[in-house]
Each structure stands twice: as C-alpha cells, then as structure tokens.
C-alpha cells in the first residue's frame, strides 16, 4: 500500500460503514454518482449496485489499474485516471444530463477544501452529497454563526447546502489506519441556493475578512468604506467574521459590489 501512503489515502474497509453511506445516499437507477478517490474500489462497488451510473476518479495509476481489473463486471462504472481538481467536470457530466447528479465519496483528506471549493464552483446543484471527511474538517463545514470553528468554507458551503452530521467513523475502519477519526456528512440543497457568481463574490469577501477573524467587521471595513454605511444597511459591524450569517455575508457582498469599493 505504498501508493496509498504516498498520496495520504486511507481505504475504507468497514463493511458496516460502507452500507450506512449507501443508505444515506438514497441511490436509485436515475442517479449519476461522482466518486472522488476510487482507491481499491470498495465504495465504488457498492455505488454501482444501487446507482445508475458511477463516475469515479483516481489519480494514482497503480490503484486505477488494480480497481479497473477488480471490477470489470460493472458496466455502469466509468473510471477516470485523472486529477479530479483539474478535470472539466461539466464536459464529463454532459452525456449523463438525464440523470440526477450526486457526490458520494471518501474524500482524500489532504485536499478536502480544494475538492469542496470545486464542487461549489461548478454550476450544478447536486441532489445530494454524502461525504466521508476528517472529523475536524467536517466540524468546520458544519460550524454555525458564532462558533470558533467557522471558516470561509463554512459560509459558502452552507449558502447552497444544508449540512447534517450522520455519524462518526473510527480510525480503525480504514487501512492504513489514519491518525484521526472521521465523520459522514449528508448535504442537501438549501431552499434558496444562490448562483455561482454570488458564491464567488462571498468566497472572496470572506477570505479577506477571515484573515483577521478575531477583529470586528468595522476594523477591516475602514480600509475600504465608512463602516456606518454598512451598519445603516442592517449589518452589525461590531460582529466578528465568524458571527455573520450567510444572508449577512451575501448582503455585504452586494453592497460593496454596487458601490464598487472592492473587487469581488
């Protein structure tokens, strides 16, 4: 398993956990499922049994070949020996437009943030995402306004999806065993998800303010605008970045864009 160690991959081998992930994915034959990190194909095989199409991405050529030969009987699996972060996912998904798109994956922990940003910036509202992630990372994604774990990704992810923690997964469920525990997130589209342009504007804005997340909003605003303009718009400038709601971030981005006070 030297290739796994090299790429910081940990293979999920606990059958019970695999079955729970499938249960929360609520798959049927009208679903096209994207899996990021094929690994040894343990989850891939389960996805193929219940989903209509499975598009699975594995960057490591050795793992790719091993799994390709291990699962030849599943005609509904499409293997991609590609770096998911560099793929033109819209082009790959285009032939499957009649399907409902879902993401179900044991995400490589070292690139979790980059993967979620890519998922968010593609103009597709995924019907469901079921993600096995490092516990600490998952807690950040779920962090609510006012919680210290809240980060820019917490804000923009929750703008489009309602995030639920389904269950924790012990490190003993993987081979090789990681040094951390994990958890499974189930994410469903929110009632009023914003478009990608809005997501990108808020993403840029939160990155700017979270650089000094312990300072009040007014402190960073003074560099670009009179804070009272924002305060009068109903956004409390005495709050810290982690305290603002998704709606307040969206409103702040709109105001600053309209006044052309910041490039978003």
Automatic annotation (TrEMBL):
SMART domains: rADc. S-adenosyl-L-methionine binds at residues 10, 12, 37, 58, 106. Keywords: Cytoplasm, Methyltransferase, RNA-binding, rRNA processing, S-adenosyl-L-methionine, Transferase. Residues 17-191 form the Ribosomal RNA adenine methylase transferase N-terminal domain. Its EC number is 2.1.1.182. It holds the Pfam family RrnaAD. GO terms for cellular component: cytosol. SUPFAM superfamilies: S-adenosyl-L-methionine-dependent methyltransferases. GO terms for molecular function: 16S rRNA (adenine(1518)-N(6)/adenine(1519)-N(6))-dimethyltransferase activity; RNA binding. It is an enzyme of class 2 (transferase). Belongs to the class I-like SAM-binding methyltransferase superfamily. rRNA adenine N(6)-methyltransferase family. This is Ribosomal RNA small subunit methyltransferase A. It comes from Atribacter laminatus. The gene is rsmA.
